[in-house]
Specification:
Two copies of one chain form a homodimer. Chain A folds into two domains: 49 residues, Arc Repressor Mutant, subunit A; 138 residues, Tetracycline Repressor, domain 2, CATH 1.10.357. The first copy, chain A, is mostly helical and 197 residues long. Chain A is built from ten helices and no strands. Chains A and B meet through helix 9 and helix 10 of A and helix 9 and helix 10 of B. The first copy, chain A, binds a DNA duplex (18 and 18 nucleotides) through helix 3 and helix 4.
Chain lengths: 197, 197
DNA sequence: GTCTATACCTTGATAGAC
DNA sequence: GTCTATCAAGGTATAGAC
């Protein structure tokens, strides 16, 4: 009667997350995972299909988790919401770095990306908040610019590339410039075309 | 008398680049590399130390190559220079994707980052051009914002996360907003403090 | 149906002969 | 300096006990 006694999807995923979050994808092997569960490696294949399938499942869960944290901005005015979303986004990337890059790394070549349900929901949430500020629903251009900056900051910090002196305020500067641009687009679009502000 | 006849650092690195650029780090194994050189795998260890050491060497060379391409903006006025540097940066990331993420991925955990000679030179070049536009030498804040956006766009496109519809102009929007902000900082600083523009 | 036992192949890496 | 031989891990797969 070993500890978890049975292999359930939940138990497997929980153990997989533990290995992944401290040690990265390299530490999430089938053998270490089996050992953590008190089981032989091959037993996992009755539940998991393959290592890649397991990673895809975890990636989908990571997308859901990030989306959940981004809900923190609910009810705020548009600009404050986008600033809050940015903080939540970076907080997620900082506290769960391996979950974050699993989320954005296509596991299989030419695979999902963010074209999974959770990924699309995530993008939809971003689009909606950006649209609230610029006044254009489905404002893909501004949303791409915003997301590009969010990911750039998350990736550089996660890789330790800002150095020990940190981003030196550059993250706030860049985010501020982008939000200002979006806000300006909103003001312009709320007046008759050609009219001065 | 096999083709390259002897194992030299140059021959090894050339073969390693060939494997890396088409196939990524996964394709750069010690066995394939040895086979490409007409040699037994263990022979490589007299010249290379380890696979990680080889990857670090290639990363350093990638940094130098990127820096060389960024010199394309020499002689241009500040704003045009930064726009040109951005295009060159993205061109490098697009045409040599594996070299690009080798460049920015710390090979060993808690390792270099960009704290190598070539990495520092790269950062120095960016800092100088940003300073020319904002009027502040060593304007780390604006340089970080600029680099963050450059990397974000490179990384998202490289990962295929913009989808098949592409960035939808979002890259130009974001870059424009950042350059405008830098230019504004330059105008402000060239006038007496507190004076209106 | 679930797990154990076992085997195959690939990788990075090392020891020691020549 | 290059070779042969070999090791420890890893992912994957199958046969068969219960």
């Amino acid at each position: 009667m070993p500890y978890p006694a049975k292999l359930t999807p939940e138990a497997i995923q929980a153990a997989a997350w533990a290995l992944l979050e401290q040690g990265g994808p390299a530490a999430l092997g089938m053998r270490p995972l089996a050992e953590a569960l008190g089981v032989r490696p091959s037993s996992l294949y009755r539940h998991v299909g393959s290592r890649e399938a397991l990673l895809s499942t975890l990636a989908e869960q990571a997308a859901s988790a990030l989306r959940a944290e981004l809900a923190a901005a609910a009810g705020l005015p548009p600009r404050a919401a986008l600033a809050t979303v940015a903080q939540a986004y970076w907080h997620f990337a900082r506290t769960r770095p391996h979950a974050y890059d699993l989320l954005l790394t296509p596991v299989a070549p030419q695979a999902p990306g963010l074209r999974t349900p959770a990924g699309k929901a995530l993008w939809g949430a971003l689009l909606e908040r950006v649209g609230a500020l610029t006044g254009h629903p489905d404002d893909t251009g501004h949303a791409v610019a915003y997301w590009t900056f969010l990911h750039g900051a998350a990736a550089l910090e996660r890789a330790g590339l800002y150095g020990q002196s940190g981003p030196q305020g550059g993250v706030e500067i860049g985010l501020g410039a982008l939000l200002d641009r979006m806000e300006a687009a909103g003001h312009l679009s709320s007046r008759p075309a050609g009219a001065p502000a």
